[in-house]
Design brief:
The protein is an all-alpha fold and about 375 residues long. The protein has 15 helices and no strands.
């Protein structure tokens, strides 16, 4: 167990330090490390955990790390994996927030992301191909994946795509008669989330660590979707309702969360530091990530039962396919922003060749991309 915990800690500290590119890139790097290299999980098990994270609120890549830690080393592994994945980004964002408060602006941007983004594209494509072979087991699931890609491309809500995909597979396998109780449970969960959101929405109050903790606990408990959804929640609470932040401060906070490695939810760390210094950063980080640990712990106890339930298995198969479709759409969007000239195109192609032909560890490629970006920006 000690050896496993050490391995888990070192892996997720590394990933938390070099995992640029958002949840799709984080998931791809985890797949490379825990499925291809370490063989801690099979492709099918990894997909099950990925599908489960898409059905609960919170940061998907962090929740996937927590699931992997639990699968590897039980409850201690759950805590170690999640904490180690979050810690590097928290420290980096905290340091940037200190400079922001001290000097009144964000530190000068560097060209790291210029070289990292095209490498991330190659890493994600490799993961999509590997996971796709495990998930797309029938022609029907392939068709469902194509439809999900089209739906995501035209702007259909991510959560709607996931639930419809699950329902379609259930109906296609003739399991509709047992779907009612599953739908009732999902409805109860969503109703409970909305009740929690309403109960925690209060009148504007003077700043305090406890009120800030309750706000971040609420956001971590009810937020589905991307970083743009996080922006909407933060703006509604901190700018419009509580008036603790200005629009500029909020946009700066979101920008820091986007350009630093690790989970985007460390935006909360920046906001907490701006509002309450180091204690505020710690409280905000705990508040927004704590629900993820709770949800993973609860869903982790249900997953073994899901694997033995035909209805739940069908739902998860559909959700897995939809999850990969969403990941593919995000990758295409990221590629348009990442491959902007010949230099970035060459970086992406070389990274792909090294990944597919020689199985180079993604971490080394990301570091090489960062070095290229720094050199290019210094010209």
């Amino acid at each position: 167990m000690r050896s496993s915990l050490r391995e888990i800690a070192l892996l997720f500290l590394k990933l938390g330090t070099i995992a640029f590119g958002g949840p799709a890139a984080h998931i791809a790097m985890m797949e490379d490390e825990v499925v291809r290299r370490r063989r801690w999980l099979t492709h099918e098990e990894f997909l099950d955990y990925l599908g489960a994270t898409n059905l609960i609120p919170g940061p998907n890549s962090t929740e996937l790390a927590i699931h992997i830690g639990h699968a590897r080393a039980g409850w201690p592994g759950l805590l170690v994996a999640g904490a180690c994945f979050i810690l590097p980004a928290t420290l980096i964002v905290g340091a940037i927030a200190w400079a922001y408060v001290r000097f009144g602006a964000l530190p000068a941007a560097v060209g790291i992301l210029y070289g990292v983004k095209p490498v991330v594209i190659a890493v994600v494509v490799q993961a999509l191909l590997g996971l796709g072979r495990a998930a797309l087991k029938t022609r029907g699931l392939i068709v469902l994946a194509v439809v999900a890609v089209i739906a995501a491309s035209v702007g259909v809500n991510e959560l709607a795509i996931l639930f419809v995909a699950g329902a379609v597979v259930v109906a296609a396998r003739g399991l509709g008669g047992t779907l009612r109780s599953e739908a009732t449970g999902v409805g109860g969960l969503l109703a409970g989330s909305l009740t929690t959101q309403a109960a925690t929405t209060a009148l504007a109050a003077p700043f305090g660590l406890w009120p800030m903790l309750t706000v971040f606990l609420k956001i971590g408990s009810v937020l589905f979707g991307s970083g743009y959804v996080l922006l909407a929640f933060l703006r509604a609470d901190f700018v419009e309702r509580l008036h603790w932040l200005t629009e500029r401060q909020l946009l700066d906070a979101v920008a820091v969360g986007q350009v630093t490695p690790g989970p985007v939810f460390t935006t909360a760390t920046f906001i907490g530091y701006v509002l309450g210094g180091a204690p505020g950063a710690g409280v905000a980080t705990i508040g927004i990530f704590l629900p993820a640990f709770v949800f993973v712990a609860l869903s982790g106890m249900v997953l073994p039962r899901i694997r033995h339930s035909p209805t739940a298995r069908a739902v998860l198969d559909g959700v897995n396919v939809a999850s990969l479709a969403l990941m593919a759409v995000v990758t295409a969007q990221l590629a348009r922003a990442a491959v902007v000239d010949w230099t970035t195109l060459v970086c992406a192609v070389i990274a792909a060749v090294l990944l597919f032909r020689w199985k180079i560890n993604a971490a080394w490629l990301v570091l090489a991309g960062a070095a290229i970006g720094m050199v290019a920006s210094a010209r």
